[in-house]
Amino acid sequence: PAFYISPIGGASFPSWLRIEIKFNISRLLRIEEPILVGWDPEQQQWVSSRSSCNFTREDTITGNTLTTYFCPCLSSNMRCNKPWQFILVVGRAIFDDTPPVPDHVPCISIGEGSGTIQHPITYTDVESDSVSIYLKSV
What we know:
This protein has 138 residues and is mainly beta. It is built from 1 helix and 9 strands. The chain has a 4-stranded antiparallel sheet with strand order 1-7-3-4. A 3-stranded antiparallel sheet has the order 2-6-5.
């Protein structure tokens, strides 16, 4: 499910919101769990309810109801009076994110002022993440 919350009449959100969402728990796999995410209008990015508050409150699932807490005003008062869009996503309880592995590590040396070397760098990444490579002089 997706939903939208907006303060009205110039009001602001409270410091935290308690949100209860009904969903079909029988459709989840054993390693999956529901996670509420909200669109941060100030940062222009999705924020998990788990990382939006600076207090520790576990999400709870009772029957087919997820109870979670969301703090729209935590990082800035600017987003306290902005509308928020939410969506319930299904994620894995344990995230696998392994680093990319170079297919080979060449040893290349070049004398100062000798020119430019072009060398392809290939790698394998199990999750097919995008990879950025930076060169640093030593």
